[in-house]
Amino acid sequence: MPRWNPEKKLLEHVHTKFWRPELKDIPEPNLMKEIFPYTDVPYIEFDHRYVPPDPAREIWITDTTFRDGQQARPPYTVEQIVDIYKFLHKLGGPNGVVRQCEFFLYTQKDREAVEKCLALGYRYPEVTGWIRAKAEDLKLVKEMGLKETGILTSCSDYHIFLKLKKTRRQALEDYLAIVKEALSLGITPRCHFEDITRADIFGFVIPFAIELMKLREESGIDIKIRLCDTLGLGVPFPEAALPRSVPKLVRAFIEEAGVPGELLEWHGHNDFYKAVINPTTAWLYGCAAVNCALLGFGERTGNTPLEAMIFEYIALRGTHNGVDTTVITDIADYYREVLGEKIPPNQPLVGSEFNATRAGIHIDGILKNEEIYNPFDTKKLLKRPIGIIITDKSGTAGIAYWINTHFHLKGDRQIDKRHPGVAKIYKQIIKQYEAGRITSISNEEMMHLVRKYIPELFVSDLDRMKARAERLLSSLAEELAERPEICSMDPDKIVPVLREFLEEHPYIQFIYVVNNEGRRLTPLITHVEDRGRYEHLLKDEDYSDRPWFIEPFRTGKVYVSDFYTSKVTGALCLTVSAPIRDRYEEIIGILGMDIRFKELMRMEEEDEEGTA
Question: What residues pair up with 269 in beta bridges, in sequence order?
Answer without folding.
Answer: 303
